[in-house]
Amino acid sequence: MFPLVPSRVAASDTRPRRSFRLSPAQTIVAGFGLADLVGTGLLMLPAATRDGEGASFVHALFTSTSAVCVTGLVVVDTETYWTPLGHLVILALIQIGGIGIMVFASLVGVLLARRLSVRSRVLAATEAKALSLDDVRGVVRRIVVTSLLIEAALFLVLFPSFALRYGHGWAEGAWYALFHSVSAFNNAGFALYADNLVRFAADPWVCLPICAAVILGGLGFPVLMQLRREIGRPLLWSMNTRLVLFGSVILLVGGTVYITALEWTNPATLGAYDPAARVLIGFFHSVQTRTAGFNSIDVGAMHDETWLGMDVLMFIGGGPAGTAGGIKITTFAVLLFILVAELRGAGAVNIFGKRLSRAVHRQAIAVVLIAVGVVVASTIALMIVTGGSLDRMLFESVSAFATVGLSTGVTADLPEAAEIILSLLMFVGRLGPLTIGTALALRERRVSYEFPKERPAIG
Asked: Cα 344 to chain center, whole Å?
């Protein structure tokens, strides 16, 4: 006989205590939300606006959300409304939002404590799409170094143009070069000019370097890191890298041809320039629809069919775990390969000689359906609130959700209710696909039974 445990021992002494812990996806959302609120508070300071009265809560929230979600939509003129302090706050939000809240927090942890807790490693790995927790500290370091190097290179290229060719002088030219370098690599689309980059429309020395930074930022950090290690060995590239690179080339070329062809004779857009400049502008805007948001011509003067094509390009977006938005090229490519396999009657989806996991099928379909539902619902809401037309409200919705920042020119005139809708849309668009994909991947569980199969009629 074993001795009985005395009854006076409290159950709470042996029972494990429950603690409320956020999941990685929830923590990322909370981190972005906190940064957004801090940015909102700073932009409401009287010293942040030129009139000395501070921005209203809605204007500050919209601008802060647009910056931390690297979107670029604005309801006030960035150049004339904000003071240098306001510009600095926007720049800091762009940089932090671009490299990722959890990656930034992990960097701070490394600098202060010289180490990362297991939970910090999990969060950083989740946001950076790292495949292993073994070298999260190294991943964080490479992400930050890569970002700073590309921004520094762009700064060196842009500085002579801003300082000398456009007469800003050394100090102001350096600030303009720095701001636009950070904004370009992080696919933010904020500019310190009232006309954005219209004055540089025919200048390849400004437009092409900015395009290069936008493209690199839109590839995603996993692709940039693999290219850094294995640039000359394409056979070793992962499926993710191949999909992003091939998809980017196809979309950039296709977008350039589409926009240039449709706007070639439009006197309000490309028609006012010589043929070489028209091609440059067409390429520039094909790049910007990949979620950067700079514009060198009046987007509001484009044809309706051009807007629709740009809606598609914006919705697809760039590569995962980078500074771009949208549903991501990989998600779109997976659905395309699923479609091709289904039309061929294939039993499995094969991409570049490898079979695609069926779990990825479900994740891609879920992300796209949720994204479509969010865009449709927000478009309807904007039409109700503003009374605007379907084509313009759809463009604004897709631009906000895909964190692009392009606008048909109606954003500044929207009522506060519409600003709040777009703010929520930018926040969901920046975090939605990432957190939904992560949550779906982590919710996979095995069951010890299966229900009988049955096939409903399709089509």
From this structure: 34
The answer as to whether 16 is a domain residue is: no
Asked if residue 12 belongs to a domain, the reply is no
Q: Whole-prediction pTM value?
A: 0.85
| Radius of gyration for the alpha carbons in the chain, expressed in angstroms and rounded | 24
350: which DSSP letter? E
CA distances for 49 relative to 45, 84, 278, 306, angstroms:
8, 9, 37, 36
Question: Which residues does 304 contact at the CB level (< 8 Å), separation at least 6?
Answer: 391
Distance separating alpha carbons of residues 192 and 72, to the nearest angstrom: 12
Q: What is the pLDDT of residues 110-158, one digit of tens each?
A: 444 445 554 555 555 555 555 454 566 677 777 888 889 999 999 999 9
Instruction: Report the distance separating Cα 87 and Cα 3, nearest Å.
Output: 73
Helix H or strand E segment including 39: helix 24-43
Beta-carbon contacts of residue 119 (< 8 Å; ≥ 6 apart):
none
Report the amino acid identity of residue 134. D
279: left (phi over 0), alpha (psi -120 to 50) or beta: alpha
CA angle, corner 63, sides to 60 and 66, nearest 5?
A: 145
For 128, the domain range is 22-441
Q: With 80 as the cut, is the pLDDT of residue 316 above it?
A: yes
How far apart (Å, rounded) are the C-alpha atoms in residues 274 and 87?
Answer: 35
Residue 26 per-residue DSSP state: H
Domain count, the chain: 1
Residue 8 lies in a domain: no
Query: How deeply is 151 buried, as exposed, middle or buried, from its count of CB atoms within 10 A (0-12, 13-18, 19+)?
Result: buried
For residue 379, name the pLDDT band (cuts at 50, 70, 90).
very high
Rounded distance, CA 291 to CA 219, Å?
A: 11
Residue 449 within a domain:
no
Q: Give how far Cα 21 sits from Cα of 18, 27, 124, 367, 370, Å.
A: 9, 9, 16, 25, 26
If one counts every other C-beta atom within 10 angstroms of the C-beta of residue 158, the result is 24
**Which tokens is 200 given?**
């540089």
Closest to 129 (Cα-Cα) out of 245, 235, 238: 238
